[in-house]
Amino acid sequence: MSLFDSLKKSAGFALKKEATKAVNDAVQSVGKGRNRSESFTFTALPANVAELQALPEAALDSAFKTTALTILALCRYEQSPDEAVEMLNFLKGPAEVSTYEKQFIRERLQGKAYIPRSYLTGATPQNGYKPNTPYTVTVSETPYSFDNENWATLYVTSGGADNPRPIKLRKKPSTGQWFLNDIQCLAEIRVPVEEDPWA
Predict the structure, then answer these.
(1) Residue at 48 is within a domain
(2) Is 31 part of any domain?
(3) Within a 10 A sphere around the Cβ of 123, how many other Cβ atoms?
(4) Per the structure, how many domains does the chain have?
């Protein structure tokens, strides 16, 4: 191999290495610096869609606000599934809660109505998921929450789970409002201590 060929090969390796590093750095930096949380406090939980719409967060001008209101709507399910679904319909904007989604929510919350309450501050398995008052919902983002234009995946933390759970949202560009797209936060959590035969 001539000196020229050797230099050419070395330069090719160096270039490839630098290109790979640049790509990796770009991937690592996507969304960096966006890892904040927002907390929302409510004196009472809304009992119907009119009460939900009266809240300042009902402007739905941020994905964080819509996520917090989704938790409040789900908390209503235990007392009135119909009113909870009405509130969720408002939060879904141009779409509405499908038959499949209604069935999914019913199955997830049957005998486990404490799951939505677990996302309110102070609610733990030890106290039967009784939240502090006034009620507070904290919503968090990750560096990748807003990676796709007009879509977001935000997270809420349950007092009965180890990892935050997602809620997916979609933005309507013409109004700037964020609407509920997919409720992904109703997975099993630890049962209340008083219901746990192994506690």
Answers:
(1) yes
(2) no
(3) 22
(4) 1
Structure confidence by residue, pLDDT tens digits, 108-159? 999 999 999 999 999 999 999 999 999 999 999 999 999 999 999 999 999 9
Would you mind telling me the total number of residues written for the chain in this entry? 199
Q: What angle do CA 169, 170, 172 make, to 5 degrees?
A: 145
In a domain, 18, yes or no: no
Q: Is residue 26 part of a domain?
A: no
| pTM summary value | 0.82
Helices (H) and strands (E) in the chain, counts: 6, 5
Which DSSP string do the residues of 160-173 spell out, in sequence order? T-SS-EEEEEEEET
Q: What is the CA radius of gyration of the chain?
A: 23
Q: Residue 51's domain spans which residues? A: 37-189
**10 Å Cβ neighbour count for 7?**
10
Which ranges constitute the DSSP H helices of 34-130?
49-53, 63-75, 81-91, 99-109, 114-117
